[in-house]
Amino acid sequence: MSERSERADEVTVRRREDGSVELRVNGVFVMDDVETSSERLLARAVVDLGASEVLVGGLGLGFTARELLSAPSVQRVVVAELHGEIVAWMRDGTLPGADLLTDPRLQVVVGDVRDVVAAQPAASLDAIVLDVDNGPDFLVHDQNAAVYEPGFADVCASRLRAGGHLSIWSMADSADVRALLDDRFEEVTATSVPVDLQGRDETYWVLTGSRPRLAG
Ligand SMILES: C[S@@+](CC[C@H](N)C(=O)[O-])C[C@H]1O[C@@H](n2cnc3c(N)ncnc32)[C@H](O)[C@@H]1O
Fold first, then answer.
1. Chain segment 6-31, per-residue pLDDT in tens
2. Parallel, antiparallel, or unpaired for β 200-210 and 160-170?
3. How many CB atoms lie within 10 A of CB 152?
4. How confident is the model at residue 199 (pLDDT cuts 50, 70, 90)?
5. CA-closest residue to ligand 1 atom 13
6. 131 C-alpha to center of ligand 1: Å?
7. Which of the four, 4, 39, 73, 120, has the lowest number of CB atoms within 10 Å?
Protein backbone atom coordinates (compact mmCIF):
# COMPACT_ATOMS: atom_id res chain seq x y z
CA MET A 1 0.00 0.00 0.00
CA SER A 2 1.29 3.46 -0.82
CA GLU A 3 2.61 5.95 1.72
CA ARG A 4 -0.49 8.13 1.46
CA SER A 5 -2.58 5.47 3.26
CA GLU A 6 -0.33 5.53 6.35
CA ARG A 7 -1.44 8.87 7.77
CA ALA A 8 -1.90 9.12 11.51
CA ASP A 9 -5.41 10.56 11.65
CA GLU A 10 -7.17 10.48 14.97
CA VAL A 11 -10.50 8.72 14.52
CA THR A 12 -12.95 8.93 17.41
CA VAL A 13 -16.38 7.49 18.08
CA ARG A 14 -18.73 9.17 20.50
CA ARG A 15 -21.94 7.70 21.85
CA ARG A 16 -24.28 10.58 22.67
CA GLU A 17 -26.64 10.66 25.64
CA ASP A 18 -29.56 9.75 23.34
CA GLY A 19 -27.69 6.62 22.23
CA SER A 20 -26.79 7.86 18.76
CA VAL A 21 -23.26 7.39 17.47
CA GLU A 22 -21.00 10.05 15.99
CA LEU A 23 -17.78 9.60 14.00
CA ARG A 24 -15.05 12.25 13.96
CA VAL A 25 -11.65 12.42 12.26
CA ASN A 26 -9.07 14.80 13.72
CA GLY A 27 -11.89 16.40 15.71
CA VAL A 28 -13.98 17.13 12.61
CA PHE A 29 -17.53 15.73 12.49
CA VAL A 30 -17.76 13.10 9.76
CA MET A 31 -21.21 11.62 10.28
CA ASP A 32 -23.70 10.22 12.75
CA ASP A 33 -26.28 7.46 12.59
CA VAL A 34 -29.27 9.80 12.95
CA GLU A 35 -29.46 11.37 9.49
CA THR A 36 -28.37 8.85 6.88
CA SER A 37 -30.73 9.47 3.98
CA SER A 38 -28.03 10.77 1.62
CA GLU A 39 -25.68 7.85 2.41
CA ARG A 40 -28.49 5.43 1.58
CA LEU A 41 -29.53 7.37 -1.51
CA LEU A 42 -25.97 7.05 -2.83
CA ALA A 43 -26.46 3.27 -2.87
CA ARG A 44 -30.03 3.38 -4.10
CA ALA A 45 -29.03 5.59 -7.05
CA VAL A 46 -26.85 2.82 -8.53
CA VAL A 47 -29.07 -0.11 -7.48
CA ASP A 48 -31.95 1.54 -9.33
CA LEU A 49 -29.68 1.83 -12.37
CA GLY A 50 -29.15 -1.95 -12.24
CA ALA A 51 -25.69 -2.18 -10.64
CA SER A 52 -24.79 -5.62 -9.31
CA GLU A 53 -21.04 -5.40 -8.58
CA VAL A 54 -20.20 -2.20 -6.72
CA LEU A 55 -17.15 -0.64 -5.09
CA VAL A 56 -17.81 1.77 -2.20
CA GLY A 57 -15.33 4.39 -1.05
CA GLY A 58 -15.63 4.79 2.73
CA LEU A 59 -17.21 2.33 5.20
CA GLY A 60 -18.12 5.00 7.76
CA LEU A 61 -21.05 3.66 9.75
CA GLY A 62 -21.95 1.29 6.93
CA PHE A 63 -25.23 2.76 5.72
CA THR A 64 -24.27 2.88 2.02
CA ALA A 65 -22.96 -0.69 2.07
CA ARG A 66 -26.00 -1.93 4.00
CA GLU A 67 -28.39 -0.30 1.53
CA LEU A 68 -26.55 -1.94 -1.37
CA LEU A 69 -26.63 -5.34 0.31
CA SER A 70 -30.34 -4.98 1.08
CA ALA A 71 -30.92 -5.36 -2.67
CA PRO A 72 -31.05 -9.03 -3.70
CA SER A 73 -29.84 -7.95 -7.17
CA VAL A 74 -26.49 -6.85 -5.71
CA GLN A 75 -24.01 -9.72 -5.94
CA ARG A 76 -20.71 -8.19 -4.81
CA VAL A 77 -19.70 -5.14 -2.80
CA VAL A 78 -16.09 -4.10 -2.22
CA VAL A 79 -15.67 -1.41 0.44
CA ALA A 80 -12.42 0.57 0.69
CA GLU A 81 -11.88 2.07 4.15
CA LEU A 82 -8.81 4.12 4.97
CA HIS A 83 -9.00 3.71 8.74
CA GLY A 84 -8.60 0.11 9.87
CA GLU A 85 -9.86 0.99 13.35
CA ILE A 86 -13.32 1.76 11.93
CA VAL A 87 -13.52 -1.75 10.50
CA ALA A 88 -12.16 -3.26 13.74
CA TRP A 89 -14.64 -1.29 15.86
CA MET A 90 -17.54 -2.43 13.70
CA ARG A 91 -16.33 -6.00 14.02
CA ASP A 92 -15.95 -5.89 17.83
CA GLY A 93 -19.21 -4.00 18.50
CA THR A 94 -17.69 -0.61 19.43
CA LEU A 95 -19.61 0.60 16.39
CA PRO A 96 -22.96 -0.90 15.39
CA GLY A 97 -23.14 -3.04 12.26
CA ALA A 98 -21.07 -6.18 12.90
CA ASP A 99 -23.70 -8.25 11.04
CA LEU A 100 -22.90 -6.30 7.88
CA LEU A 101 -19.36 -7.66 7.89
CA THR A 102 -20.60 -11.26 7.82
CA ASP A 103 -22.45 -10.85 4.51
CA PRO A 104 -20.64 -13.17 2.09
CA ARG A 105 -21.14 -10.68 -0.75
CA LEU A 106 -19.07 -8.06 1.10
CA GLN A 107 -15.30 -7.60 0.97
CA VAL A 108 -13.79 -4.81 3.08
CA VAL A 109 -10.31 -3.65 2.10
CA VAL A 110 -8.39 -1.36 4.44
CA GLY A 111 -6.68 1.21 2.27
CA ASP A 112 -7.04 4.37 0.27
CA VAL A 113 -9.92 4.18 -2.19
CA ARG A 114 -7.57 5.34 -4.94
CA ASP A 115 -5.38 2.29 -4.44
CA VAL A 116 -8.32 -0.07 -4.04
CA VAL A 117 -10.02 1.12 -7.23
CA ALA A 118 -6.73 0.97 -9.14
CA ALA A 119 -6.28 -2.65 -8.00
CA GLN A 120 -9.57 -3.76 -9.59
CA PRO A 121 -9.45 -5.44 -13.00
CA ALA A 122 -10.41 -3.24 -15.96
CA ALA A 123 -14.14 -3.08 -16.73
CA SER A 124 -15.04 -5.28 -13.74
CA LEU A 125 -17.53 -3.09 -11.85
CA ASP A 126 -21.06 -1.85 -12.50
CA ALA A 127 -20.68 1.10 -10.17
CA ILE A 128 -18.24 2.98 -7.98
CA VAL A 129 -19.77 5.09 -5.22
CA LEU A 130 -17.60 7.57 -3.38
CA ASP A 131 -18.34 8.96 0.06
CA VAL A 132 -14.87 9.39 1.51
CA ASP A 133 -15.01 13.10 2.11
CA ASN A 134 -17.30 16.10 1.89
CA GLY A 135 -16.55 16.96 -1.72
CA PRO A 136 -13.69 19.06 -3.07
CA ASP A 137 -14.75 22.29 -1.36
CA PHE A 138 -14.99 21.00 2.25
CA LEU A 139 -12.27 18.39 2.66
CA VAL A 140 -11.69 16.58 5.96
CA HIS A 141 -8.48 15.04 4.59
CA ASP A 142 -6.47 17.38 2.34
CA GLN A 143 -5.08 14.33 0.54
CA ASN A 144 -8.59 13.47 -0.66
CA ALA A 145 -8.49 16.39 -3.09
CA ALA A 146 -7.11 13.84 -5.56
CA VAL A 147 -10.32 11.80 -5.28
CA TYR A 148 -12.12 14.60 -7.13
CA GLU A 149 -9.46 15.16 -9.79
CA PRO A 150 -9.42 13.97 -13.41
CA GLY A 151 -6.69 11.36 -12.90
CA PHE A 152 -8.76 9.34 -10.45
CA ALA A 153 -11.97 9.85 -12.43
CA ASP A 154 -10.17 8.30 -15.39
CA VAL A 155 -9.08 5.33 -13.26
CA CYS A 156 -12.68 4.90 -12.11
CA ALA A 157 -13.95 5.04 -15.69
CA SER A 158 -11.50 2.33 -16.74
CA ARG A 159 -12.62 -0.01 -13.92
CA LEU A 160 -16.30 0.41 -14.84
CA ARG A 161 -18.04 -1.67 -17.44
CA ALA A 162 -19.48 0.24 -20.39
CA GLY A 163 -22.67 1.79 -19.05
CA GLY A 164 -21.37 1.56 -15.45
CA HIS A 165 -21.89 4.39 -13.01
CA LEU A 166 -19.73 6.69 -10.90
CA SER A 167 -21.70 8.27 -8.08
CA ILE A 168 -20.23 10.87 -5.74
CA TRP A 169 -21.59 12.19 -2.43
CA SER A 170 -20.95 15.90 -1.99
CA MET A 171 -21.79 18.46 0.66
CA ALA A 172 -22.45 20.99 -2.11
CA ASP A 173 -23.58 20.92 -5.71
CA SER A 174 -19.97 21.19 -6.76
CA ALA A 175 -19.27 22.71 -10.18
CA ASP A 176 -15.94 20.86 -10.17
CA VAL A 177 -17.58 17.48 -9.60
CA ARG A 178 -20.16 18.19 -12.28
CA ALA A 179 -17.40 19.16 -14.73
CA LEU A 180 -15.44 16.02 -13.83
CA LEU A 181 -18.45 13.85 -14.64
CA ASP A 182 -19.55 15.86 -17.68
CA ASP A 183 -16.10 15.49 -19.25
CA ARG A 184 -15.98 11.70 -19.27
CA PHE A 185 -19.44 10.33 -18.42
CA GLU A 186 -22.92 10.74 -19.83
CA GLU A 187 -26.40 11.04 -18.35
CA VAL A 188 -24.97 13.13 -15.51
CA THR A 189 -27.47 13.85 -12.77
CA ALA A 190 -27.27 15.85 -9.54
CA THR A 191 -29.80 14.89 -6.88
CA SER A 192 -30.35 17.13 -3.88
CA VAL A 193 -31.09 15.56 -0.53
CA PRO A 194 -32.56 17.91 2.08
CA VAL A 195 -31.47 16.84 5.56
CA ASP A 196 -31.98 17.94 9.13
CA LEU A 197 -28.50 17.97 10.66
CA GLN A 198 -28.89 18.32 14.42
CA GLY A 199 -31.69 20.88 13.98
CA ARG A 200 -30.06 22.67 11.05
CA ASP A 201 -31.44 22.45 7.50
CA GLU A 202 -28.79 21.34 5.02
CA THR A 203 -28.85 20.06 1.48
CA TYR A 204 -26.47 17.31 0.45
CA TRP A 205 -25.90 16.10 -3.11
CA VAL A 206 -25.40 12.88 -4.99
CA LEU A 207 -23.85 13.39 -8.44
CA THR A 208 -23.85 10.47 -10.86
CA GLY A 209 -22.58 9.81 -14.37
CA SER A 210 -22.54 6.72 -16.58
CA ARG A 211 -19.61 5.46 -18.63
CA PRO A 212 -20.51 5.80 -22.31
CA ARG A 213 -21.52 2.45 -23.78
CA LEU A 214 -19.66 3.11 -27.02
CA ALA A 215 -16.42 4.27 -25.34
CA GLY A 216 -13.25 3.00 -26.98
C1 LIG B 1 -18.71 10.01 5.54
S2 LIG B 1 -17.96 8.51 5.93
C3 LIG B 1 -18.76 7.36 4.88
C4 LIG B 1 -20.16 7.12 5.26
C5 LIG B 1 -20.77 5.92 4.61
N6 LIG B 1 -21.24 6.24 3.27
C7 LIG B 1 -21.92 5.39 5.44
O8 LIG B 1 -22.96 5.09 4.88
O9 LIG B 1 -21.78 5.27 6.65
C10 LIG B 1 -16.38 8.63 5.13
C11 LIG B 1 -15.54 7.39 5.35
O12 LIG B 1 -14.49 7.37 4.38
C13 LIG B 1 -13.28 7.04 5.01
N14 LIG B 1 -12.20 7.60 4.18
C15 LIG B 1 -11.72 8.86 4.15
N16 LIG B 1 -10.82 9.00 3.18
C17 LIG B 1 -10.69 7.81 2.56
C18 LIG B 1 -9.94 7.33 1.47
N19 LIG B 1 -9.12 8.12 0.81
N20 LIG B 1 -10.08 6.02 1.11
C21 LIG B 1 -10.93 5.20 1.78
N22 LIG B 1 -11.70 5.62 2.82
C23 LIG B 1 -11.60 6.90 3.20
C24 LIG B 1 -13.42 7.64 6.39
O25 LIG B 1 -12.54 7.00 7.32
C26 LIG B 1 -14.88 7.35 6.71
O27 LIG B 1 -15.05 6.08 7.26
1. 458 899 999 999 999 999 998 888 99
2. antiparallel
3. 20
4. confident
5. 58
6. 6
7. 73
